[in-house]
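fyi for ur records
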Amino acid sequence: MENSWATSGPAQGSAPGSASGAAFGRDLHLDLSGSGGIRAALLRALRDAVRSGRLAPGTRLPSSRSLAADLGIARNTVADAYAELVAEGWLSSRQGSGTRVAERAPARDAPGPARRTPGPVDRPRFDLTPGRPDVSSFPRTAWLAAARRALTAAPSDAFGYGDPCGRPELRTVLADYLARARGVRADPDRIVVCAGFMQGLGLLSRALGAGDDGPGDGTGSPGRMAIESYGLSFHRDVITRAGLGTVPLLVDEHGARTQELPALDDVRDIRAALLTPAHQFPTGVPLHPDRRAAAVNWARSTGGYILEDDYDGEFRYDRQPVGALQGLDPDHVVYLGTASKSLAPALRLAWMVLPDRLVDPVLALKRTGEWQSGSLEQLTLAEFLASGAYDRHLRGMRLRYRRRRDQLVAALADRAPHVHVSGIAAGLHAVLELPPGTEQSIVEAARWQGLALEGLNSFRAPSAPGTARDGLVVAYGTPPDHSFAGGLEALVRALPPGPGPEA
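which gave:
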């Protein structure tokens, strides 16, 4: 007899032991193949299911009548098998409770090498590494209310496979919000919703590396992308996996040195430049107005593109908001935004505002099987934006993050006044300048304090010319409120002492 399916219990409201009850219970897969007859095969299959843990202790089995009907065998065969397994201790049977998998004491492991328990150095008590917001502050109640409204109003086609562009409701609301809040010039037809920034960067890199279909010299060469000399290594990895080379663009106190793009392009076929204009990651400086203009002029003169990573543009404190670079030239700047910092990374919601020439190439790639964000999450975000809940959430988070930033600055001024802090006018992290050659030792000292930290040099492109800067990238936005004070205390203990008083 081949493998068969049975149910593990009757449905609610069905007579115990009835075939109809079995049809609506839990499915149970039993392999009745092998030698020795049906009874032996059934005994073997049930023992294997219990031994492997597929049938957990306490699981109620179908009645002998139900199981026999589902397997197409005699009821007496099932009843005899149950009785034998009860006698062996595999099953238990009690009047009114049916037949269940017997409860067993947990097995005592054989003596062996003791498992190493992670200590505070391995599992830090405090985390000030950048890359995510305070996820404990996710607006659960407001998001749930928006989800209920969105689900109630959702059209039937929202439950299908979806459009690679994303839900039209979200793209329409995003176009209005980005124009109002970030100065983006967007049409819903030029917005593509993607499953996170990384997917968007990967799609763009592949589209730009498609030889004659992308900008460049028309030779079919995949070309290169200019990247800021300080940034995230996995962004560089996404670009290179798409077939593009990378060329570092130096970053200083005024942001990326975009005035050097023409010199790079003369010899290296630069197709695009990936920039963080509003708040350079990780140094925290905005791109100088002259350099914003230089970037756009380079793109216009070469037919290249600027990829604008606006990862935390909503968070600013001591300066006027810096509008999106895309507003200067929507035909040559791709705007990339995300909900990962403003709400939570788990949503996997990001968006691209594309120049007309890139819409079709990007969608052609996305239609080849790229993962899509869930339609219900997109509809919920659309409702969250349209209702004003998103703006209210951002205002509240700005106040919270600003208080934390002020706590960081005050703690350093009081306990480590010799440490210079920069990049604090916006965003979710600050940079602490360190004496040359001390970065790694301080990161290690922080680990002994139970604190996870990232050094500035860990974000530096390996091929970037120039002298490395020692520093710490301290993310005051990452920890929940209850652990932030402890994280600050661990931080100031790990910092080197300042110069003593003059003799």
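The first strand starts at residue 4 and ends at 7. thats all i got for now
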